[in-house]
Amino acid sequence: MNIQEKFEEYDTNRDGFIELDELKTGLGIEEDEAKKLFEQFDENKDGKLDFEEFKHLMLKREFDVFDLNNDGKLQLNELMEGYKMEEEAAKKIIAKYDDNKDGCLQFDEFRRWLHDVFLQNEFNHFDSSKDGFLQPDELKTGYRLEEDAITKIFKEFDSNSDGKLDFNEFYKWQVTEEFKKFDKNNDGQLDKDEIMSGLRCDEKEAKEFIVKYDKDNDGTIDLNEWYGVWKI
What is the dihedral of CA 112, 88, 63, 172, to 10 degrees? Predict the structure, then answer.
């Protein structure tokens, strides 16, 4: 599922948000069901879904549909059936993203896998020359950035100074930008509330996330620990 394309498809008035009627029409559901989804995923309660809220909704719906036995995990056979993939491909995904080594994907592991898929698709889309790199003009066009912003990005993330971003450099830039968006008070740390807001998870999930990735045990996630989440 290409969530960016779905978002653009559902956003019929092109205002950058998904309203109740747009969600109802896009998903082909009744108004009562659409309202329930808004109650669950309209995190800031502004009556519309921004892209991150919409992405969380779509990922959770997809996960729940493929979780055939409703145990909160995607088993090997569920991943294969849901995505119509060969067993070997499904095994590789589980091997890479199954952090707790229980042989399946829980929602946070599933979300991390599709996060990586989304960024790879985005990289490929903006790589108009198809040379496996993002040149400054491709980045500028794709993200509608000013020249000084491009210069700053390349200075920080073009680690080998070759004047272009490979996927790993692009990936680190995107993960860093996500951290900055989540860090509402700009203190360089993600606390429980910021993780709840950024990842659209509940308090229990946020606490478990911190316990899992907080290497210095200060109760927050700093940028280096955030890189650890994404295996950078």
Answer: 10
- Segments in the chain below pLDDT 50: none
All domains of the chain, ordered by start, with CATH?
1-66 (1.10.238.10), 69-115 (1.10.238.10), 127-165 (no CATH), 166-232 (1.10.238.10)
Which residue type, as a one-letter code, is found at position 43?
E
Give the C-alpha distances (Å, rounded to integers) separating 48 from 18, 24, 26, 194.
Answer: 6, 12, 14, 20
Residue 154 near residue 165 (C-beta atoms within 8 A): yes
Contact of 203 with 196, CB cutoff 8 Å: yes
Q: Is 57 helix (H, G, I), strand (E, B) or coil?
A: helix
Dig out the tokens for 112 from the structure.
Answer: 């991390």
Q: What is the pLDDT of residues 50-94, one digit of tens each?
A: 988 898 899 889 999 999 999 999 999 999 999 999 999 999 999
Q: Taking the model in full, what pTM does it have? A: 0.77
pLDDT of residue 142: 86
